[in-house]
Amino acid sequence: MIRRIAAAVAAFALAGAGYSALSQAPEPRPSGYLAGALNGAVLVGAPPAEDSALQAAERKTYEATRALRGTERWTQAVQDNELTPAALFQGFGCAAGVSLSREETTATAWLLARVGTDIGKASAASKGVYNRPRPPVGNDKPICIPRDPALMANSSWPSGHAMLGWTYALLLAEMVPAQAGAILKRGHDYGDSRVICGVHFLSDVQAGRTVASALVAKLHADPQFAADLAAAKAELARAKPAQCPVRKAG
To answer: Is 161 labeled as catalytic in the residue annotation?
Structure first.
């Protein structure tokens, strides 16, 4: 998971490497805004104990949601596993009602790239403490993505996808306040999809959102972030409307 978030950050960074108007000598992978990594493990504490009632309830949720295989919601969970710039721009752009692209919304892409570095560091610092096994470890029930050994070995607590999705949702809701509800729902869905997919427990997702909220709060104290956020907000105010596929009724 840490590698997947790092790869997403790197992809955003490479997209930003050509933005000469934003930096005279941009790095292949931009530095984050925060001086150090936010240690979410301190913030959210330990996951539910293996013999706790909450863990038993979460295990039942995992068992029940396996029945969603083949449904439209399962398909969305597969799509939400992708953290590429194209997938994130599409999902959040449609929610915000604006066309997000590397070429046309450069200030927004650059801000998300830098914040992505902060998310990656926070995810690494948070996951390396408790090493909670993921729901599919020790069973052969279906999950929405291949059973990659690296994924199975990666800590379930907290969810990096939920962290990234909720961080970006909070920021984009500020940039396009008229569409805040739809944007926040889209960010929320990134976390819920991890439960549907079967690769996280619900408390992993909730912990990821908590870390994301703390990260956004810290970002707002940084003057450069505030300036970049204002530039991105102004950019999205004049951005083209999103071109999104029409979903079938029912």
So the answer is: yes
Q: What pLDDT, in 10s, does the model give residues 138-148? A: 999 999 999 99
Active site residue 188: no
- Pick the catalytic residue: 132, 204, 209, 228? 204
Q: Is the pTM of this model over 0.85?
A: yes
Q: Which of 132, 161, 186, 209 is catalytic?
A: 161
Burial of 215 (0-12, 13-18, 19+ CB in 10 A): buried
Q: What is the pLDDT of residues 18-57, one digit of tens each?
A: 322 223 334 456 899 999 888 888 899 999 999 999 999 9
Give the model's pLDDT for residue 38.
87
Q: Do you find a cis peptide bond into 158, omega within 30 degrees of 0?
A: yes
147 as an active site residue: the answer is no
Known catalytic membership, residue 194: yes
pLDDT average, residue stretch 83-104: 93
Which of 90, 65, 96, 51 is CA-nearest to residue 199?
A: 65
Catalytic entry in 102, 114, 134, 200: 200
Place of tokens 């096994």: 133
CA–CA separation, 38 and 168 (whole Å): 16
Domains of the chain: 2-14+51-237 (1.20.144.10)
